[in-house]
Amino acid sequence: MTLDLEQKAEMLCSKTKHYLITTMGRFAEEADPDEFFRALSYALREEIMINWLATTRTHVKKDVRMLYYLSMEYLPGRIFSNNITNLAANEMVRLVMHKMNRNYHDIVEREADPALGNGGLGRLASCFLDSLATHDYPAQAYGLRYQYGIFEQQLWDGVQIEAPDCWLIGENPWEFRRDLRKVFVKYCGHINPATNIHGDEIYGLQGFEEVWSVPYDIPIIGYSNSNKFSVVTLRLWTTKESPRNFQLQRYNAGFLDQAAENTTLTDVLYPSDHHETGKRIRLKQEFLLVSASLQDIIRHYLVSHDNFRSFADKVRIQINDTHPALIIAELIRILVKKHDIPWKMALELTQAVTGYTNHTILSEALEQWDQHLLYYLLPRQYKVIERLNHEFCHLVRSKYPANEEKVRRLSIIENGRVRMANLAIVGSHKVNGVAALHTELLKNSVFKDFYELYPDKFVNVTNGVTQRRWLLHCNPELSKFITRRLGDGWITDFSQIGKLANFAADLASQEEFLAIKRKNKNKLIEFLNQHNKLRNASGQIISPSPIIDVSSIFDVQIKRIHEYKRQLMNALHLIMLYYELLENPNHQRIKRTAIFAGKAAAGYETAKDIIRLIHCIARKVNKDPSIGGMLKIVYVENYNVSKAEIIIPAADLSEQISAAGTEASGTGNMKLTMNGALTIGTNDGANIEMRQAITDQWWPFAFGASSEELAEMKSKNSYRSRDVYEQNPQIRRAVDGLRDRSFAVSDAEHQVLSDLYHKLIETHYGGAPDRYFTLKDLQSYYNAQKGVEILYQDPNKWAEYAIHNIAGMGIFSTDNSIRNYSELIWGLTPCPSDDDILERFRHEYSTIDVCRII
Questions:
Q1: Nearest by Cα to 795 from 516, 574, 596, 578
Q2: Which residues are known to be catalytic?
Q3: Between β-strands 315-320 and 66-70, what pairing exists: parallel, antiparallel or unpaired?
Q4: Is residue 250's pLDDT more than 80?
Q5: How far apart are CA 27 and CA 41, in angstroms?
Q6: C-alpha dihedral over 130, 222, 813, 91, to 10 degrees?
Q7: What is the mean pLDDT of residues 424-437?
Q8: For position 2, what pLDDT does the model report?
Q9: Contacts for 289 with CB less than 8 Å, ≥ 6 apart
Q10: Integer Cα distance of 496 and 498 in angstroms
Q11: How far apart are CA 147 and CA 164, in angstroms?
Q12: Which residues fall within 8 angstroms of residue 852, CB to CB, at 6 or more apart?
């Protein structure tokens, strides 16, 4: 029987009331918003559970090749509202809210953003899961369930304060605790050498620490406008919910920190590694993810197999950056010790199933672990790495005799450090970069020696974002605009978006686009006025955000704060603009609202100094009546997915200004462009491919030196930031503003801003100043910004450019990325739920759903 919308809404109302009574003891009219949110979530998830069961049972029945995705980070954003979008249930849920006298946005905002990641790495992983589910790929993902996230960012008079992100303070209706799947992870101890039946050395362990890890599952549903959809499981491990991890004897002896260490392993993402305890916890976290997940993967495989002959065919493991690289050593160890597989075969199996995605070319971001710490915490795994490295170095010597320097560069263990990227490359069958330039830099620079040794291992898979979250969900007005012109096929096949270019020159389409953008900008202004308050040095809220003119250009830079992303260059440009507005009353400038958001790593002092600089500039500029409100600067506190969903649709200008050759890909650029922002950007990361797809005709604000130019200056040590400073009066004045107390009002601020000056002009931690070429590109950036202002004064022409930019984004969907991964790396085939299995579960559910005990 097919139900109409009214009938479905009535059933959902009844279900919601049922859960309010049976789980909370409340009538519908009594329930507070939190209770209503949970009850409605329970009602909706019943439908999801049926498909979840059908998806997993289908995979087992058909014995398909499975992808297992390991990442230290996920940033799914609010799950409730995204599920409504992917179920194509927005209209029905809004009708339910109306019938039950509830406000949709009030209920949606009861859910906290899951604090499982930090930036693009985590959001990319979540976009991948959406695409895997939407296109029916058999997959399961693994991560850690961080109790307090990375941190909640608060800005006290411009100073970043890290507070716990208490996202789990209330019940999360979208997670399922799975005690029957708990596993044990072993650390430390003393090894006992032995041999397996093949004569390979194996290791027992005595006197170890055993940590219990309990999984929580989150269903990630694929988009469908029917009741048939696939569900990917995101399994998150926690040590917080395992009381046996608490060491009472140490507690009673007065060692409180040691007693709680294993209980708190999953408390915080990326604990500061500026001290030994932080390093130890980080390494323990990474191995917890690896060991727990691998035990689960092997258990899942052995459900359908009684030996490992099919393991290389049925299993694919993708490690997202180097954090899970220990899976290579652990998988070899398990196969050799627990399953009596010869070492050579165990290594071949490991390489056959494992793929490694690299996300950085920055040497400081390529993980290395102290070999003594690794041996202390993971002695058995270290021994595996040691043997693997010995054999690999022997292979390199045989191929490159008398070239010990090359052996040293390729070695996994070198100078007392274990190089995790080298381990990942040696132990994988494919290594991929995440943008064309990034992959070329890996092959020709960062991993050049490995590429010469294994040229077939290296492939490129350019990142993407899911258009369902980052257009359909977060920008409904623009989505309707597109659907009215193209139909709704673009939701699952984003290549269709290219046809939008046919409407770019249409005046009516331009006017409608501009009206939608204005509506989204008003929505952001309302959000900032209500939620983005300014705090004083004691953390007290003292004033609201500045008054913003909706007609001003919304100039947006939202991303993790890092020197290579060059928020500092943006800030210096704003100083230049401010001085120009002060000195030239007859200026031809337009109104500009500069919007920043992003967290600095807890131990990254320079990044924190940049945030403080932006605050100091904003404080002076926003209150200066002499510039007539021409420039406003806003820093959005505690940036997360939900805030991005408000900022991105409102953006006019997307700042993608990293030093060329430093950004692996960038996905914020894709989200902003999909939502109709124009990019001001360097030729870096995915900007290059976006520019090619959109074409130079509609990519007007490129600037800056190329990666080749910057690489040459580095190699020749020929760049002198002081020369730029001394030869360009406008730049010199802006940089001097960092040390002449133009923006600092206290000695502490003066010290912070002066430090930034020194890092630009004099020295940077003992090395060359301005290591990311901020001053080198500043004049080019300034000139490009003038071009921005000229184009913005012609709204219809701006709209034409923006629509062409949206139309050029077809290949930058994670649907396309996942298809490329499947073809180039995983060999994965879509596997929709078996119709008979799905129908059986639906029938059984509909039968028992009417049952009552009395």
A1: 516
A2: 359, 559-560, 565, 667, 671
A3: parallel
A4: no
A5: 16
A6: -110
A7: 97
A8: 66
A9: 70, 72, 142, 143, 144, 237, 323, 324
A10: 5
A11: 9
A12: none
